[in-house]
Write a structure and sequence with these properties.
Blueprint lengths: L6 E4 L24 H10 L3 E7 L10 H19 L5 E5 L3 H4 L10 H10 L7 E4 L2 H9 L4 E4 L1
Parallel strand pairs: 1-2, 1-4, 2-3, 4-5
Length: 151
């Protein structure tokens, strides 16, 4: 069996980027001061960098899955070009319980974390998580990630 990997998990809105409410247009990517540099340091230290984000704007019909994917592509391009940093994977929950019904991926449930841990052979005990809400902390701790940093 291959060696377990370590990861730095980040919420997106309010943690990496300013939370402007249902951001989906790449022109609205505004990095929070210091966060791209933190991502770059994790890249250099050999951590996978993974974004875990609730995106209920999809369920609400404010934007499409494709628009969100483009947002993430441009976000990663800018991180690389402007800061020499990158995100290895994006996991998102497009659901909103009152519209789509319950799911296992919407934070504070740990589904997106658990999926990433499984798909990338990650050791949660060696990993860290950053977020801006109780939902982020609850989800990451439920997935076994003990080190959480509130942004």
């Amino acid at each position: 069996m291959s060696e377990k990997r370590k990861a730095a998990f980040f919420d997106r809105d309010g943690t990496i980027c300013e939370d402007i409410g249902y951001a989906h247009d790449p022109k609205d990517i505004h990095f929070i001061a210091g966060m791209p540099e933190i991502i770059r340091e994790y890249n250099k230290a050999g951590y996978l960098v993974i974004v875990i984000t609730n995106q209920s704007g999809i369920a609400r019909g404010f934007f499409t899955d494709q628009q969100m994917q483009l947002f993430h592509e441009v976000m990663n391009q800018r991180l690389e070009k402007e800061y020499g940093a990158h995100i290895d994977a994006f996991y998102f929950c497009p659901h909103l319980p009152e519209i789509t019904g319950e799911c296992e991926c919407r934070k504070p449930k740990p589904g997106m974390f658990l999926k990433a841990i499984s798909e990338y052979n990650i050791d949660p005990k060696q990993s860290v998580s950053y977020g801006d809400s109780d939902r982020d902390e609850i989800a990451s701790r439920a997935a076994g990630i003990e080190r959480f940093f509130l942004v």
